[in-house]
Amino acid sequence: MTKDHSAPLRFGRIAATLPVRDIAASYQFYSSVFGFEKIFENGQPTGFMILRRDDAELHLTLQKDHKAAKFNVAHMLVSDADEVHQSCLRHGLRIIKRIEDKDYGLRAFVFADLDGNRIDVGEALKK
Questions:
Q1: Is-contact 46 62, C-beta < 8 A?
Q2: For the whole prediction, is pTM greater than 0.85?
Q3: For 52-91, b where at least 16 C-beta lie within 10 A, e where not — what string?
Q4: pLDDT digits over 55-108, tens only?
Q5: Which of 13, 25, 31, 102 is 20 to 30 A from residue 1's alpha carbon, by CA?
Q6: Topology of domain 16-124, CATH
Q7: Reduced to 3 DSSP states, what percent helix, strand and coil does the chain have, rounded to the nearest 5?
Q8: Domain coordinates in residue numbering, the chain
């Protein structure tokens, strides 16, 4: 099989991998709060898991000594940031940055998951 090297290089899907201390608890969290479904798991006990919802994919990796970074480690684009924000509040999540319209064209906020991983959520503002 020969490749057409005259065509511009294109990238496919890229997914965030989040380190978690308890993979079962993290799966339950992302499933109940955001509706992600498990599509793959590996290891005995499970040390890696892939979750999916719509076009979004999230990889969880078991890291029992994980200490959360003090910066955003993933960005989720959604169709309704307010709905996701309300779900975070209903589930008692820590909001790092409040929801607001940003000058770069997103309505966005940042929350921390069970392991302190900071996730930036954004919705494209209508032009």
A1: yes
A2: yes
A3: eeeebbbebbbeeebebeeeebbebebeebeebbeebeee
A4: 999 999 999 999 999 999 999 999 999 999 999 999 999 999 999 999 999 999
A5: 13
A6: 2,3-Dihydroxybiphenyl 1,2-Dioxygenase; domain 1 (3.10.180)
A7: 15, 40, 40
A8: 16-124
